[in-house]
From TrEMBL:
PANTHER family: NEPHROCYSTIN-3, TETRATRICOPEPTIDE REPEAT PROTEIN (AFU_ORTHOLOGUE AFUA_6G03870). Keywords: Repeat, Signal, TPR repeat. TPR repeats lie at residues 677-710. The keyword Signal applies. Transmembrane segments: none annotated. This is Tetratricopeptide repeat-containing protein.
């Protein structure tokens, strides 16, 4: 004010003539109007702001009357009006009043006049008072520019302008420039206080001291904001003494100095001194400025807030009432001072935890535009309150909105590029890091605002610096830059130790934050030290507000204890934290939901599954509500919930949760982030449980890769993943036992280094090692490992009967079983049963596993009754598993899962044979089991297709056809080179996963359509009811004999069902299964191939069956094993006769097809349409071009001219019978044309077929994915146009270009209404034989594609004989309508011309 007054007098007194020549006014009138200003200022100094306004109103009125609507006095009056309105807290048209004043001043005084310069300074001060430093800086710069070019201002005046500029720069955040300006003027101001001028009056000397005091306070404050803690402390302390000495305590500059000193102390963690300084500042300001002066009110407001913060309730209430009384006495109720009072009340409510109505009340005030202008600084305080309330209520979306509003207001007040605004942008970035997934946006802010601006303005001692380091470390941790995160944490810890006393609450808080981050990056040893020190500090702060930090430290400690396996201690810490939380108040810094999730994680590890489920369900629901369904906050609770479902045996739900968690994680953090590891490991464990060891190995290997890449090989999480991988390799049958053992010992060593050998992690590793050592017959070592593991778990979870003991009992039972110690084994298995039943139920997979083992114990010990009882319970549960799990699995996964339980079916079959005299009903059970499980995978695939295509769900159908398209793309991609895949932008592994995931989804959704249909288990009685006189149904069962373990001895069991009303299943046992599948099968094939007498096949493959069923029967035969590879009709029975002559053998996939056929209406094509393919042009180029390839071993394909005759004859035949035909010959017989067909009634293709045996396959280097290329469906197919050209380029890679329709592709054909498919080609019935599932080849593919009946060949056929056979078959069928009889009669007719089976015995018909 001194500066303005000095120049005011200068202008109005010294320059009177020049200033008012325009109005021809005299000095007397100038003095008269100047009196109004002097009186107004006097009233302002007395705190009588309303009266001050009246004087400027008079000045405005009088000067307008005298000089007109625009005059110099009017400009001054408006500026004073704005100042007094500020003091009153009235801001209507505040900006307009100032801008109008300057417009009048510029017009009346002149743009470059001293008078206008003075008005600019007053306007700048008004903007500082308001808090708009952008405008203040602009006005002041104009003034400085004007005075620097004028002779009217002396050095003192220019120095004062520079200090004013420094004040504004400090507010904006340009501390470097501010300090530079202050340092330039410091000597000048201090020297003036030292001048020995005896002519100076006391007032003049006091003014010099005040000017210096103002400079000292500014410099201290600049150092404070810059983070120069020691220099600032020294400056404030020295300044306090100097100002108190030179000026009395009741001077306003001393009060101002104390106030800023208090702020400095408070923000840097000092507890008691700030209250003292705020109190003194308030008291001295009352004397210097008056009780209602804005500065005094500011000091009192801060005093109230300080006492609230320190929880000094009585003092806070007293000061609050003082403030309220002052405001009610001196100000109108719509004054902004009352809004400020409300913000203080809100802070009190917030700290008391009374937030229910707080957000609504604060928002109402903030939104009221009549109380405050849109950019008023008090709005920032309201919004900060709203941020705290929203955060305390976990409403982070609202909090983000408020933070953005703060940035908008600060951009207007301080400038968008200012450091002050940057701080608010950092607050938003911190919010994103703490509560959202907007990491990239946060990093951008850190880069732009901190590294681009703030870092240049502050030191590492700044009170916000450590918090910034914490958040930066978090972002690096999220981004997997753990080295950088660790460095930042070390820096933060060093800064904290330097800054705070070692018993300071802020020191304890920071230690906890650092420890929490150190746990996340795996620095457990450092975290243990820091969290222990943090707890020792924070446990001493137990107020309602501060105790929350102790709670947070306890939860960090529990997290570390849980990782290290100290579950009792972790649970105790978490339960104490929850108990303490019940008496604390909601804090925006603490989220109790995270604590409950940590508790759930501990509960999960110690077997408290009920409590775990309740907590996680609530957490998932709440996190979804708070953060959205794609938030990273869902990942860990989702993984834990998935692991709970895995433990409970709900594999479908486990995969759903694991896949979803991984999807969120990958989308949030990227494909290679360590944050994906928990979900990856969960899926690895799931697939291990399901027996899908290939996929489990893939996931475990992936986990090791991402973890090792960040943490190195010696990390605990890497070690546990290595152990899991070793066990999967063991399950897969990896023959390198040493490799597995090395991996297990490596994992054991790593964990032993980092954790105590008494930790549960170590116990789990010992258990895994025992599992492997049992398989290696190192039983004593295995027992030792189990004993150590059990002791650890007893120590860690002894009071709970931990579920981990169940697995130990199983493994120990396995050792005793292997040693034939039946009683000891029984005891261990029973203990496992008890625990699993206690924790879960008697349908849990682990309970069933123990039950299965107990049955085997009883069987080996001769207790047939108990063995039967227990295995029947197992079979019952398996039937439930198949119903529950299969719909959510792909066919590949179903195969893997079936393999994990198939041994028990083989065991049951052995029991049924061994015990049939005592328990004949067991044979009936075998029959029923076979009806349920035989062709299970094929049946599932066919049902899925039928249900989808017959549904009314257009979306599901679209998804189904999309799946077919992706399968087609995958079949082509498998054959691409790495370069081709990159060129096409195809990720083969990802595409394969997509195909499988869509298949799983389709399978699960299609199962929903059958929920309204009565689902029944078919039984042998239903099959018997379908049989007519002289008909027999035979279910063949191939199984491996059980003797202590499942052996390699193959047995064929023929379950025979006759049509007699009360007949029960009979059986024939053929125990020489191994010989049947080797030498007897080779004899059969060689006899046909070389046209020699077959003296063994009848005796070894049929005679035992014939003795049971007799001759001249119709036999519905469901083959298994080797019987899928032979045509029984072509077996000679003597007298130049074959079985074809004596028995009508009808092949079916499963004898339940008889019942289904009888009771279901099939969808078929009404239109008589036939698609006929034949005589493909195998070589589009001349064969001469491939001479070198042929010499190098490339396959040569012979032409099939007879197939053209065949197709022409069939075309004529069909058309004569009223059918519509389409035939494709030569270049038209193309793979693309086959794929385009739409369910003809008949599909007939005459060409070469082939199947490449597994042991003969040799991969081309062009194969990108060897594992997928091993699929048998990719190694069998039909040759079409260009296939000869294709085979000169590759031996086994059939999809590099069109030409060969593989069985994999054939599954996608549209044959859902096709009655008959005839594969008139060589070896179209061959493929890989899977026990209980038939042949994986073209046969399977065409049935899956929808064909009702299929004709195919089992070996190479004669072109000419095949042509005649097919024509004869169609003639007879079209004449009689009986496909099966027509086929038999055609064979018999051809036999008259071609006696040997090689001509007519290759073809078989499957289906009814």
């Amino acid at each position: 004010m001194g500066t303005t007054k000095r120049l005011f007098n200068l202008v109005f007194l010294g320059l009177t003539f020049f200033a008012f020549a325009h109005y021809q006014a005299n000095a007397q009138s100038v003095k008269k109007y100047n009196k109004y200003i002097e009186k107004a200022e006097k009233k302002f100094d007395q705190g009588k702001f309303e009266k001050a306004l009246k004087f400027v109103d008079k000045l405005e009125s009088k000067s307008t009357q005298k000089f007109g609507a625009e005059n110099q006095f009017l400009a001054v009056a408006k500026l004073k009006q704005a100042k007094y309105n500020w003091a009153l807290g009235q801001f209507d048209d505040y900006y307009k009043i100032n801008s109008d004043a300057l417009a009048i001043s510029q017009k009346t005084n002149g743009e470059n006049s001293i008078s206008h310069g003075i008005n600019l300074i007053d306007a700048a001060q008004n903007m500082v008072n308001y808090g708009n430093y952008v405008k203040a800086y602009d006005y002041l710069e104009q003034a400085i520019d004007l005075f620097q070019n004028s002779d009217a201002a002396d050095d003192l005046y220019l120095s004062e302008l520079k200090l004013k500029k420094a004040e504004i720069l400090i507010a904006i955040g340009d501390y470097n420039k501010a300090l530079k300006l202050i340092n330039q003027e410091e000597a000048f101001y201090l020297q003036r206080t030292l001048d020995k001028d005896n002519n100076l009056k006391n007032k003049q000397l006091e003014k010099r001291f005040e000017d210096a005091a103002r400079m000292i306070t500014l410099k201290s404050n600049a150092l404070r904001h810059k983070g120069e803690i020691r220099r600032a402390d020294s400056a404030f302390s020295t300044g306090e003494s100097w100002i108190k000495d030179k000026l009395n305590k009741r001077n306003k500059y001393f009060a101002d100095h104390l106030y800023y000193f208090a702020e400095f102390l408070e923000e840097n963690g000092t507890r008691e001194l700030p209250f003292s300084y705020y109190s003194d500042a308030y008291i001295y300001s009352i004397s210097a400025n008056g009780a209602n002066h804005p500065s005094t009110l500011k000091y009192l407001e801060k005093l109230v807030l300080n006492t609230i913060k320190e929880n000094n309730i009585s003092k806070a209430l007293a000061f609050y009432k003082d403030l309220e009384k002052i405001l009610k006495t001196n100000f109108d109720k719509n004054s902004s001072h009352f809004v400020k009072l409300a913000t203080i009340s809100f802070e009190s409510d917030l700290r008391k935890g009374d937030i229910k109505k707080l957000e609504q009340a604060a928002a109402k005030l903030s939104d009221d535009k009549n109380l405050l202008p849109a950019d008023h600084p008090i709005r920032i305080e309201l919004l900060n309150t709203l941020v705290k309330v929203a955060s305390a209520k976990n409403n982070y979306q609202n909090a983000e909105g408020y933070l953005n509003q703060i940035i908008d207001i600060k951009s207007m007040l301080y400038g968008d590029t200012s450091v002050s605004t940057s701080y608010s942008k950092l607050d938003l970035a911190h919010h994103w890091v703490d509560h959202t997934d907007k990491f990239e946006d946060a990093v951008k802010i850190y880069n732009q605002e901190f590294y681009g601006k703030i870092e240049k303005q502050i030191t590492t001692k700044h009170y916000k610096y450590v918090n910034l380091l914490n958040h930066l470390a978090t972002t690096y941790q999220i981004d997997d830059d753990y080295e950088k995160a660790s460095d930042l944490l070390d820096e933060a810890l060093l800064a904290t130790r330097t800054k705070y006393d070692n018993q300071d609450i802020d020191f304890g808080k920071e230690l906890n934050l650092i420890a929490d981050l150190q746990i996340k990056i795996g620095e457990y040893e450092k975290a243990e030290v820091n969290i222990a020190e943090s707890i020792s500090i924070l446990q001493n702060f137990d107020t309602e507000f501060s105790i929350v930090y102790y709670i947070m430290a306890l939860e960090t400690q529990a997290k570390l204890l849980s990782i290290k396996g100290f579950f009792d201690e972790a649970e105790d810490a978490l339960e104490l934290s929850q108990k303490l939380y019940s008496r604390t108040i909601p804090s925006p810094e603490y989220n109790p939901l995270l604590a409950s999730q940590e508790l759930a994680s501990v509960y999960l590890k110690v077997g408290k599954y009920g409590e775990t489920e309740k907590i996680l369900l609530k957490a998932l629901e709440r996190n979804t509500e708070l953060y959205g369904e794609d938030s990273r906050k869902l990942i860990l609770p989702m993984v834990d919930f998935g692991r709970l479902q895995l433990i409970k045996g709900d594999y479908t739900k486990t995969e759903e949760l694991g896949r979803r968690a991984l999807e969120i994680s990958e989308n949030t953090f990227g494909k290679n982030s360590t944050k994906n590891a928990p979900a990856i490991l969960l899926l690895g464990e799931l697939y291990e449980t399901l027996g899908d060891y290939d996929k489990s190995e893939e996931f475990y290997s992936r986990a090791i890769s991402v973890l090792e890449n960040q943490f190195g090989r010696d990390h605990v999480d890497v070690a546990t993943s290595i152990s899991k991988l070793a066990i999967v390799l063991f399950y897969e049958g990896d023959e390198n036992a040493q490799k597995i053992e090395d991996l297990l010992f490596e994992a054991k060593t790593i964990v032993g280094k980092r954790f105590s050998p008494k930790s549960p992690l170590y116990a789990d590793l010992l258990k895994d090692m025992a599992r492997f050592f049992i398989s290696e017959d190192k039983l004593e070592d295995a027992l030792s490992f189990l004993e150590q593991s059990e002791d650890i778990w007893k120590d860690k979870a002894g009071r709970r009967n931990n579920i981990k003991a169940a697995d130990i009992h199983i493994l120990r039972g396995d050792i005793f079983y292997k040693q034939r110690k039946w009683n000891a084994a029984e005891s261990e298995y029973k203990e496992s049963q008890k625990l699993n039943e206690k924790f879960f139920n008697d349908q849990h997979p682990e309970y069933v596993k123990a039950t299965s083992r107990m049955s085997k114990v009883y069987y080996m010990d001769g207790n047939q009754r108990k063995a039967k009882t227990y295995i029947e319970e197992v079979m019952k549960n398996y039937n439930v598993f198949i119903k529950e799990y299969f719909p959510a699995l792909s066919e590949r996964e179903k195969t893997k899962y079936w393999n994990t339980i198939r041994d028990d079916y083989d065991y049951f079959n052995t029991m049924a044979l061994t015990m049939h005299d005592r328990y004949p009903e067991m044979i009936q059970t075998v029959f029923n089991n076979t009806l349920k499980t035989k062709g299970l995978l094929l049946s599932s695939s066919i049902k899925m297709r039928e249900r989808i295509l017959n549904s009314n769900d257009s979306i599901l159908k679209t998804q189904y056809f999309d799946w077919l398209d992706k399968k087609e793309l995958l079949s082509n991609a498998i054959s691409m080179s790495k370069e081709q895949l990159e060129s096409e932008g195809i990720n083969l592994s990802q595409l394969a996963r997509e195909v499988e995931l869509i298949e799983k989804s389709l399978s699960q959704q299609s199962e929903l359509f059958s929920e309204g249909i009565v689902q029944q288990d078919y039984n042998w009685e239903q099959i018997r009811e379908t049989l007519q006189p002289n008909e027999v149904a035979i279910e063949m069962v191939r199984f491996r004999h059980f003797d202590h373990y499942i052996t390699d001895s193959v047995v064929y069991l023929m379950l025979i069902l006759k049509s007699e009303e009360k007949s029960k299943p009979e059986f024939v046992v053929m125990e020489s299964g191994n010989d049947m599948e080797s030498k007897f099968f080779n004899n059969y094939r060689n006899a046909i191939k070389f046209r020699v007498q077959d003296n063994f096949s009848y005796k070894n493959f049929w005679e035992p069956i014939e003795k049971a069923v007799g001759l001249n029967k119709t036999i519905y035969l469901s083959p298994d094993g080797v019987y899928n590879q032979i045509n029984l009709e072509a077996i000679p029975i003597g007298n130049q006769q074959y079985l074809l002559d004596k028995t009508n053998i009808v092949l079916v996939s499963n004898t339940k097809d008889l019942y289904l056929k009888k009771n279901a209406s099939e969808t078929s094509q009404d239109e008589k349409t036939a698609l006929l393919f034949g005589d493909p042009k195998f070589y589009l180029a001349s064969r001469q071009e491939y001479i070198s390839e042929f010499r190098s071993g490339a396959t040569q394909i012979s032409d099939l001219p007879g197939t053209k005759i065949e197709i022409d004859a069939l075309t004529k035949l069909f058309e004569q019978n009223g059918w519509t035909t389409s035939n494709y010959l030569d270049t038209k017989a193309a793979e693309e044309r086959v794929k385009d067909m739409k369910s003809p009634k008949v599909f007939h293709i005459a060409t070469h077929g082939f199947f490449t045996e597994k042991e003969d396959r040799k991969q081309d280097n062009s194969f990108e994915n060897n594992q997928m290329s091993e699929n048998p469906l990719l190694n069998t197919g039909l040759m079409l146009k260009g296939s000869g050209d294709l085979l000169t380029k590759t031996r086994y890679n059939y999809n590099i270009e069109p030409g060969i329709l593989t069985a994999y592709e054939a599954m996608n054909l549209n044959l859902d209404k096709t009655d008959l498919v005839v594969l008139s080609a060589c070896e179209t019935g061959l493929g890989e034989v899977h026990g209980g599932e038939g042949v994986f080849g073209l046969q399977r593919s065409f049935l899956v594609a929808g064909a009702k009946t299929l004709v195919m060949s089992l070996f190479k056929v004669s072109d000419e004989a095949t042509q005649k056979l097919m024509v004869s078959f169609y003639e007879k069928w079209l004449e009689t309508g009986d496909k099966r009889q027509a086929f038999i009669d055609a064979k018999k007719e051809i036999r008259n011309e071609y006696k040997d089976p090689i001509y007519w015995g290759a073809f078989v018909m499957i289906g009814i």
